[in-house]
Amino acid sequence: MLPASERSISLVCSSEILSRMLVQASRQPGLSHVYDSLLGFTDNEIFIRPQSSGCTGRRFCDLMFDFPNAILLGTSSMEMRDGRPYFRQEINPGSDRIVGEGEWLIFLARGTVVERPYPDVAFNPEFLPPESRRFPRENILILGWSDKVFSILQEYDTFLEAGSEITIAALHPPQEARAWLEEKLPRPLVNVRPTYTQINYALAAKLDELLAREFDTCIILADESSGERDPDARGIVTMLLLRDYERRHPHHRHKNVVVEVLSTANSELLQQHCQTDILISPRLISMLLAQVSQQLMLERVYADLMNAHANEIYLKPVNRYSRDPAACTFADVMRGAANLGELAIGVKIHAKANDATNDFGISINPPKDKPLLLNVADEVIIISKYGRRLTTS
Q: How far is the C-alpha of 190 from the C-alpha of 178, rounded, in Å?
């Protein structure tokens, strides 16, 4: 079978993908480091390869343990559309999904995938009751303006509870900003109500006035409304002012703050002074494009992992997957996740979350057979459809 990317063209909407990353990182501290690890070429990579003959007809959950150095993410198949090959991916297809003849396998691995079937490994996880879905009602603050605003609003609208509010603060005149919101939103918002305020939030007194309204989460964009040549400088000043406000008002701390920067050097500067998630827009997009250029079908895989109606990456407490975190192996965690319809791809060690030399505590694709030595503060990195609100539009 020919790879499904042959004679095909991949289109990557960078603004939409970055918007999804910003929103997801604003919900889950540490997720930006997971994106860095997945998109880089220096550690684990996602790639697709033909299956061996021993895979056909077996359950997905049983195949998971045939590859000691890789994580099986899903399957792929090809069909012809208008005389051209079309790639169809299925990430986290479910434990009982039977792998069909001719399907390819999607892996997350460091280097060449080693296949070593384990016929003695049975999928028999301990029972853990599924967690009920909860859609929060939140008050979100977006500081700055760019074309990503519209995708960010749409993304938040898919999972927040009705009645949630999003305040956008920037320097555009109110009538212009409101006109753009009415004109450029892809579809009407159902669950969130956006409001706009014209304010120079990079001034301490103005930011204090704004933050007094108490927000759950804050996103600081690379602001285009100020007209400044270096939006990173404005973002850094704003981040420092925000942290100073939180020190003076400890009861007004945000659950999470995410900053979009354009320079790697500025990212390192912020990491030294602020414990927050930072997304470096140009670098992430460059990494994504480099990955897709190697295997064009990966564009759909990454789109699936950041799709409002498909799978996404989450960080969940380790005791959701094992009753004995200190002694469990990653294989144990994988079984517990599969029992809940989820796919475990790594762990986050809380004690190392602020240590850049230890990848901020992120460990993707750890060895499956060694105790993880986790505690209840640590988290599991999973792929799941959990928590998404499927719309009918």
A: 17
| Conformational region of residue 85, where left means phi above 0, alpha means psi within -120 to 50, and beta covers everything else | beta
Rounded to 5°, the CA angle 100-68-382 comes to 75
**Cα–Cα dist 64/43, whole Å:** 20
The Cα-based distances of 87 to 48, 62, 82, 323 in angstroms read 11, 24, 13, 40
Contact between 239 and 276 under an 8 Å Cβ cutoff? The reply is yes
Closest CA to 243 of 230, 229, 233, 257: 257
pLDDT tens digit string along 10-62? 444 567 778 888 888 888 888 888 888 877 766 788 888 888 777 888 888 88
- CA 269 vs CA 88, 236, 261: distances in Å: 41, 9, 11
Of 376, 368, 365, 385, residue with least CA distance to 306: 385
**Overall pTM > 0.90:** no
- Report residue 16 as tokens: 């939409």
Distance CA 287, CA 40 (A): 6
Tell me: pLDDT of 201 over 90.
yes
CA distance 90 to 104: 10
CA 53-59-64 angle, 5° bins: 85
pLDDT in tens, 305-361: 776 566 788 899 999 998 889 899 999 999 889 888 899 999 999 998 878 788 888
What's the length of the chain? 393
Beta bridge partners of 313: 383
Q: Distances in Å between the alpha carbon of 218 and those of 40, 130, 258?
A: 27, 30, 7
Distance CA 342, CA 297 (A): 23
Q: Which domains does the chain have, with CATH numbers?
A: 146-282 (3.40.50), 309-384 (3.30.70.1450)
Give the residue carrying structure tokens 């994106």. 35
